[in-house]
From TrEMBL:
Family note: Belongs to the aldehyde dehydrogenase family.
The protein's name: Aldehyde dehydrogenase
SUPFAM superfamilies, alphabetized: ALDH-like
GO molecular function: aldehyde dehydrogenase (NAD+) activity
GO biological process, one term: aldehyde metabolic process
Taxonomic lineage of the native organism: Bacteria, Pseudomonadati, Pseudomonadota, Gammaproteobacteria, Oceanospirillales
Keyword field: NAD, Oxidoreductase
Length: 451
């Protein structure tokens, strides 16, 4: 396997060297093939994902896996000609009439390590941006979604040459070797703990990394919010994919005097959105299910009130102690702690006392509070009166900060992330700046304030 991996990497390296600047036509064609691969095999993709999860809503698969990729490709193919064009930047008067520009240049080979939770879209979304920027790509999908990973491997081999796009299947050992390859950029989507290891492996080669990590994303519900609407949005974000979404609201913060009203609204939203178990997504495997069951059991054993509407619906855990597992680690599943705080300043202090989240959700129309959140908290994204929807805006950078990740992609941000923004300087035929060369002229030194 190691020899294959290195051999395939060398093949891609030669290809990238032979075509250091793929034209717009080449890039648009690669993107079109990626779209065809996703569109023409929708049913196989849905079946593979459902095999991996045991049960997952096909509406959610179409929305978050298939359409997410197709929309990203459409946006990118439309704007790519514009993004690829070098742009002029201003010149200090001392150096005029020289000109300066920025020219985006492909990096070469981009490696992508992807997780199991959205096994199609999180594998391909970074590749859309990497292709747009003119790179070739190598992907290591998750071993925890083997049916989808295998389908990816087979379809990619059908639609792309090895020189353009290679899928490497395998477990942790293969992933480790993969992260040690001297990529020109490595994108990792997964847990913070593994992200640290990937960053260390990449540092040996000075490979730049984009780390799309996880963490606990809070939802703050202020007193002025419409509790029913807020609860509907929160349960949408938590219910999607059985809570196995990196930007799912992890826990809710609400003023203690409103906690009963918010819990009631959340409970009603669960019943409205999850009337039966058929639409619900299951935990990816028995180990994850056991982890979630253990979280709920521990909270129950410590006297927390739990409102549970069924094995695959969001389960509310009221005011759990901060030391319980449900508050110590990213939940990534159906548990939803609801925590009472004295006021909104206490909610902000609560958020700021913990690692910066990937998303911070705020349910309020109070402009003052929105401004306070903007200026006094840090998170990958700040979202008001909704959950998850910012992910679908291609012109917003998507990424974390601190423990939730580094670097962002999507749309133009991804194009620039996977390009080298090369500084270009054109000296004019006649240039006064040459007068700055030695021997230094006294009058000029005076004019420039240098002596
Ligand atoms: P994970 O970290 O266990 O695995 C992710 C990938 O890393 C897999 O392909 C795996 O094979 C590989 N891997 C495992 N060990 C490795 C090692 N030592 N070196 C290199 N690669 C290794 O994550 P997961 O369980 O698949 O996904 C869940 C996590 O991902 C959650 O924390 C979630 O929040 C996060 N996530 C983040 C985003 C985002 O965009 N920020 C999106 C989805 C998921």
């Amino acid at each position: 396997m190691t020899r294959d991996l290195t051999g395939d990497f060398q093949t891609q390296r030669q290809a990238a060297d032979q075509m250091p600047y793929p034209t717009l036509t080449v890039r648009r064609d690669r993107l079109a093939r990626l779209a065809r691969m996703t569109k023409h095999h929708q049913l196989e993709i849905i079946r593979a994902i459902q095999t991996d999860f045991g049960q997952r809503s096909d509406v959610e698969i179409r929305m978050a896996e298939i359409n997410a990729v197709l929309h990203a490709i459409r946006h990118t193919r439309l704007h790519l000609w514009h993004w690829m064009r070098p742009w002029s930047v201003s010149m200090p008067w001392r150096l005029t009439p020289a000109r300066a520009r920025i020219a985006p240049q492909p990096l070469g080979i981009v490696g992508v390590i992807s997780p199991w939770n959205y096994p199609w879209s999180l594998a391909l979304m970074p590749i859309v941006d990497a292709f747009a920027a003119g790179n070739v790509v190598m992907l290591k999908p998750s071993e925890h979604s083997p049916a989808t990973s295998n389908l990816l491997q087979r379809l990619v081999a059908q639609y792309f040459t090895l020189e353009e796009f290679k899928v490497v299947e395998g477990g942790v050992e293969v992933a480790r070797r993969f992260s040690e390859l001297p990529f020109d950029h490595l994108v990792f989507t997964g847990s913070t703990a593994v992200g640290r290891q990937v960053a260390q492996a990449a540092a040996v080669n000075l490979t730049p990394v984009t780390l799309e990590l996880g963490g606990k994303s809070p939802a703050i519900v202020a007193g002025d919010a419409d509790f029913d609407k807020a609860a509907t949005d929160i349960i949408f974000g938590k219910g999607m994919n059985g809570g196995q979404t990196c930007i799912a609201p992890d826990y809710v913060l609400v003023e203690s005097r409103h906690i009963s009203a918010v819990v009631k609204a959340l409970s009603e939203a669960i019943q409205r959105q999850r009337p039966d178990d058929h639409a619900a997504t299951h935990a990816i495997n028995a180990a994850h299910q056991q982890r979630l069951d253990a979280m709920l059991q521990e909270a129950h054993d410590h006297g927390c009130r739990i409102i549970d509407h069924g094995p695959h619906a969001p389960a509310l855990v009221i005011d759990p102690h901060r030391e319980l597992q449900v508050m110590r680690e990213e939940i990534f599943g159906r548990c939803l702690p609801v925590i009472g705080v004295s006021d909104m300043s206490a909610a902000i202090r609560y958020v700021n006392a913990r690692p910066h989240p990937l998303a911070l959700y705020a349910f309020t129309h109070d402009k003052g509070l929105q401004q306070q959140l903007l200026q006094t908290t840090r998170s990958g994204a700040l979202v008001s009166n909704a959950t998850l929807l910012h992910h679908a805006v291609p012109s917003l950078p998507f990424g974390g900060v601190g423990e939730s990740g580094m670097g962002a992609y999507h749309g133009r941000h991804g194009f620039e992330r996977f390009s080298h923004l090369r500084g270009i300087f054109y000296q004019a035929k006649r240039s006064a700046s040459r007068m700055l060369y030695p021997p230094y002229r006294r009058w000029l030194i005076k004019l420039l304030g240098l002596g």
